Amino acid sequence: MKKILLFLVISVGLVSVYYNYELADEKAAAASASAEQAALLDAELAAFEAELVAKLALQEKETETARQAALDAFQAKLAADKAAAAASTAAYQDSLIEAELAAFEAQLEAELAAQEMMAEIEAEMARQAALDAFQAKLAADKAAAAKSTAAYQSKRANDARIAALMDQLNTKKNWLTLKHNLRLN
Protein backbone atom coordinates (compact mmCIF):
# COMPACT_ATOMS: atom_id res chain seq x y z
CA MET A 1 0.00 0.00 0.00
CA LYS A 2 2.79 2.41 0.51
CA LYS A 3 3.63 2.02 -3.06
CA ILE A 4 0.15 2.73 -4.11
CA LEU A 5 0.02 5.63 -1.86
CA LEU A 6 3.33 6.83 -3.15
CA PHE A 7 2.19 6.23 -6.64
CA LEU A 8 -0.97 8.12 -5.91
CA VAL A 9 0.94 11.05 -4.38
CA ILE A 10 3.32 11.11 -7.32
CA SER A 11 0.41 10.90 -9.74
CA VAL A 12 -1.35 13.74 -8.00
CA GLY A 13 1.88 15.76 -8.04
CA LEU A 14 2.38 15.05 -11.71
CA VAL A 15 -1.19 15.92 -12.50
CA SER A 16 -0.76 19.04 -10.47
CA VAL A 17 2.43 19.99 -12.30
CA TYR A 18 0.82 19.21 -15.60
CA TYR A 19 -2.23 21.20 -14.63
CA ASN A 20 -0.06 24.15 -13.57
CA TYR A 21 1.85 23.89 -16.81
CA GLU A 22 -1.39 23.83 -18.79
CA LEU A 23 -2.72 26.68 -16.71
CA ALA A 24 0.43 28.71 -17.41
CA ASP A 25 0.06 27.99 -21.15
CA GLU A 26 -3.58 29.02 -21.03
CA LYS A 27 -2.67 32.14 -19.09
CA ALA A 28 0.01 32.98 -21.65
CA ALA A 29 -2.41 32.31 -24.51
CA ALA A 30 -5.08 34.31 -22.72
CA ALA A 31 -2.61 37.13 -22.09
CA SER A 32 -1.57 37.04 -25.74
CA ALA A 33 -5.21 36.98 -26.83
CA SER A 34 -5.99 39.70 -24.30
CA ALA A 35 -3.13 41.82 -25.68
CA GLU A 36 -4.35 41.27 -29.22
CA GLN A 37 -7.90 42.08 -28.13
CA ALA A 38 -6.65 45.18 -26.28
CA ALA A 39 -4.73 46.25 -29.41
CA LEU A 40 -7.87 45.72 -31.49
CA LEU A 41 -9.95 47.61 -28.94
CA ASP A 42 -7.36 50.40 -28.87
CA ALA A 43 -7.42 50.57 -32.67
CA GLU A 44 -11.23 50.60 -32.69
CA LEU A 45 -11.24 53.21 -29.93
CA ALA A 46 -8.74 55.35 -31.87
CA ALA A 47 -10.86 55.01 -35.03
CA PHE A 48 -14.00 55.86 -33.05
CA GLU A 49 -12.27 58.86 -31.46
CA ALA A 50 -11.07 60.04 -34.88
CA GLU A 51 -14.58 59.64 -36.29
CA LEU A 52 -16.04 61.45 -33.26
CA VAL A 53 -13.50 64.30 -33.61
CA ALA A 54 -14.34 64.56 -37.33
CA LYS A 55 -18.07 64.63 -36.54
CA LEU A 56 -17.55 67.25 -33.84
CA ALA A 57 -15.46 69.38 -36.20
CA LEU A 58 -18.17 69.08 -38.87
CA GLN A 59 -20.87 69.88 -36.33
CA GLU A 60 -18.90 72.91 -35.10
CA LYS A 61 -18.41 74.04 -38.68
CA GLU A 62 -22.14 73.65 -39.39
CA THR A 63 -22.95 75.50 -36.16
CA GLU A 64 -20.54 78.29 -37.06
CA THR A 65 -22.03 78.46 -40.58
CA ALA A 66 -25.53 78.64 -39.10
CA ARG A 67 -24.41 81.35 -36.65
CA GLN A 68 -22.81 83.32 -39.46
CA ALA A 69 -25.96 83.00 -41.57
CA ALA A 70 -28.09 84.16 -38.63
CA LEU A 71 -25.69 87.07 -38.03
CA ASP A 72 -25.78 88.02 -41.71
CA ALA A 73 -29.59 87.87 -41.71
CA PHE A 74 -29.72 89.97 -38.53
CA GLN A 75 -27.31 92.54 -39.98
CA ALA A 76 -29.34 92.71 -43.20
CA LYS A 77 -32.54 93.21 -41.18
CA LEU A 78 -30.80 95.84 -39.07
CA ALA A 79 -29.64 97.67 -42.20
CA ALA A 80 -33.17 97.52 -43.64
CA ASP A 81 -34.61 98.81 -40.34
CA LYS A 82 -32.06 101.63 -40.30
CA ALA A 83 -32.96 102.58 -43.87
CA ALA A 84 -36.66 102.52 -43.03
CA ALA A 85 -36.05 104.62 -39.91
CA ALA A 86 -34.02 107.12 -41.92
CA ALA A 87 -36.77 107.36 -44.53
CA SER A 88 -39.40 107.76 -41.82
CA THR A 89 -37.34 110.45 -40.08
CA ALA A 90 -36.86 112.32 -43.35
CA ALA A 91 -40.60 112.17 -44.09
CA TYR A 92 -41.40 113.35 -40.57
CA GLN A 93 -38.92 116.24 -40.85
CA ASP A 94 -40.41 117.17 -44.23
CA SER A 95 -43.89 117.23 -42.70
CA LEU A 96 -42.61 119.38 -39.81
CA ILE A 97 -41.01 121.80 -42.24
CA GLU A 98 -44.22 121.95 -44.29
CA ALA A 99 -46.26 122.56 -41.14
CA GLU A 100 -43.88 125.32 -40.02
CA LEU A 101 -44.00 126.86 -43.49
CA ALA A 102 -47.82 126.76 -43.51
CA ALA A 103 -47.92 128.33 -40.03
CA PHE A 104 -45.46 131.03 -41.13
CA GLU A 105 -47.53 131.76 -44.26
CA ALA A 106 -50.70 131.99 -42.18
CA GLN A 107 -48.98 134.31 -39.68
CA LEU A 108 -47.63 136.45 -42.54
CA GLU A 109 -51.08 136.69 -44.11
CA ALA A 110 -52.57 137.67 -40.75
CA GLU A 111 -49.88 140.32 -40.25
CA LEU A 112 -50.44 141.70 -43.77
CA ALA A 113 -54.20 141.81 -43.15
CA ALA A 114 -53.57 143.60 -39.84
CA GLN A 115 -51.25 146.08 -41.57
CA GLU A 116 -53.87 146.74 -44.24
CA MET A 117 -56.52 147.22 -41.58
CA MET A 118 -54.20 149.52 -39.64
CA ALA A 119 -53.49 151.51 -42.82
CA GLU A 120 -57.23 151.84 -43.42
CA ILE A 121 -57.77 152.94 -39.82
CA GLU A 122 -54.92 155.45 -40.10
CA ALA A 123 -56.36 156.77 -43.39
CA GLU A 124 -59.81 157.05 -41.79
CA MET A 125 -58.27 158.83 -38.80
CA ALA A 126 -56.45 161.22 -41.18
CA ARG A 127 -59.74 161.88 -43.00
CA GLN A 128 -61.47 162.45 -39.69
CA ALA A 129 -58.71 164.82 -38.58
CA ALA A 130 -58.99 166.69 -41.87
CA LEU A 131 -62.76 166.85 -41.47
CA ASP A 132 -62.39 168.05 -37.88
CA ALA A 133 -59.91 170.69 -38.99
CA PHE A 134 -62.21 171.72 -41.80
CA GLN A 135 -65.16 171.93 -39.46
CA ALA A 136 -63.11 173.93 -36.95
CA LYS A 137 -62.00 176.26 -39.72
CA LEU A 138 -65.56 176.47 -40.90
CA ALA A 139 -66.72 177.28 -37.39
CA ALA A 140 -63.97 179.89 -37.10
CA ASP A 141 -64.98 181.28 -40.46
CA LYS A 142 -68.58 181.39 -39.35
CA ALA A 143 -67.62 183.14 -36.14
CA ALA A 144 -65.52 185.64 -38.05
CA ALA A 145 -68.35 186.19 -40.50
CA ALA A 146 -70.80 186.70 -37.67
CA LYS A 147 -68.44 189.12 -35.96
CA SER A 148 -67.83 190.84 -39.23
CA THR A 149 -71.54 190.94 -39.87
CA ALA A 150 -72.25 192.44 -36.44
CA ALA A 151 -69.47 195.04 -36.79
CA TYR A 152 -70.36 196.11 -40.29
CA GLN A 153 -74.01 195.87 -40.07
CA SER A 154 -75.64 198.72 -41.77
CA LYS A 155 -79.03 198.86 -43.19
CA ARG A 156 -78.87 198.12 -46.86
CA ALA A 157 -75.24 198.10 -47.59
CA ASN A 158 -74.59 195.77 -44.79
CA ASP A 159 -77.58 193.56 -45.72
CA ALA A 160 -76.43 193.40 -49.31
CA ARG A 161 -72.93 192.80 -48.26
CA ILE A 162 -73.97 190.18 -45.73
CA ALA A 163 -76.22 188.53 -48.31
CA ALA A 164 -73.36 188.51 -50.76
CA LEU A 165 -71.04 187.12 -48.15
CA MET A 166 -73.58 184.56 -47.14
CA ASP A 167 -74.09 183.52 -50.73
CA GLN A 168 -70.38 183.32 -51.12
CA LEU A 169 -70.07 181.40 -47.90
CA ASN A 170 -72.89 179.03 -48.82
CA THR A 171 -71.32 178.43 -52.18
CA LYS A 172 -68.00 177.71 -50.53
CA LYS A 173 -69.69 175.54 -47.95
CA ASN A 174 -71.54 173.63 -50.67
CA TRP A 175 -68.36 173.33 -52.61
CA LEU A 176 -66.48 172.06 -49.54
CA THR A 177 -69.34 169.75 -48.62
CA LEU A 178 -69.38 168.42 -52.13
CA LYS A 179 -65.64 168.10 -52.04
CA HIS A 180 -65.85 166.41 -48.68
CA ASN A 181 -68.57 164.08 -49.91
CA LEU A 182 -66.49 163.24 -52.92
CA ARG A 183 -63.59 162.43 -50.66
CA LEU A 184 -65.73 160.20 -48.50
CA ASN A 185 -67.03 158.33 -51.49
Q: Would you kindly provide a written description of the structure presented here, covering whatever features stand out?
A:
There is one protein chain. With 185 residues, this protein is mostly helical. It has one domain. Helix content is 97%, strand content 0%. The chain has two helices and no strands. The protein has helices spanning 2-151, 156-184. Helix 1 packs antiparallel against helix 2 (156-184). The longest helix has 150 residues, at 2-151. The protein is rod-shaped, with a radius of gyration of 68 Å. The model has no long low-confidence stretch (mean pLDDT 82).
What is the topological layout?
Blueprint: H1 2-151, H2 156-184
Helix pairs in contact: 1-2
Beta strand count: 0
Gap from first CA to last CA: 179 Å
Structural class by secondary-structure content: mainly alpha
Which bin fits the share of residues in helices? Answer: over 70%
Q: Largest sheet, described in full?
A: none
Query: Which stretches are poorly predicted, pLDDT < 50 over at least 5 residues?
Result: none
The H/E string reads HH
Approximately what portion of the residues adopt beta-strand conformation? Answer: under 5%
- Number of separate structural domains: 1
Number of helices: 2
Q: What value does the average pLDDT take?
A: 82
Rg over C-alpha atoms, rounded to the nearest angstrom: 68 Å
What sort of overall outline do the alpha carbons produce when their principal axes are compared?
rod-shaped
Query: Multimeric state of these chains?
Result: single chain
